Amino acid sequence: MENYTMEGRTYRYYGQEAPLYPFGYGLSYTTFQYRDLVLSPPALPVCANLSVSVVLENTGQRDGEEVVQLYLRWEQSSVPVPRWQLVAFRRVAVPAGWETKLSFQVVAEQRAVWAQDWRLEPGTFTLFAGGQQPGQQMRVPSEVLSAQFTVTGAARPLRGC
Questions:
Q1: Where is the Fibronectin type III-like domain (predicted)?
Q2: Which residues, including other chains, have CB under 8 Å from residue 96's CB and lie 6 or more apart?
Q3: CB 70 within 8 A of CB 130
Q4: Per residue in 80-97, pLDDT tens?
């Protein structure tokens, strides 16, 4: 094998073609609603971590569990990157009619790109939070919230942070 690129070999690099069974695929006996996605800070230095919070409400008639997923998308990168990358997930049990606020940390290393070395780049990023991948078609409705944040400063090697 001479070509080690992942393009066309894994769903992360397929472009517009959706995987048959994406991460988080499945059915539930209840429904969930996401709201109040907050990214803090909305503009951060290149080596800083991002704090994320989101509210999950069980709007159905039964108790249920949801796998809350966070995906990151680079809006512009100097090298090829996945269309989005899973950066955090958590299985949460929520009784019927209740809500819970979840907090996550997206560390700088999760924004690193490979360009002969792991490096952090400034730019605009989109973070998605929901019970499925962004753009996933499902029989049961599920929503995915999104918010953008900006990374400022000069590009630098990851080990320089």
A1: 66-133
A2: 30, 58, 60, 61, 62, 63, 64
A3: no
A4: 888 889 999 999 999 999
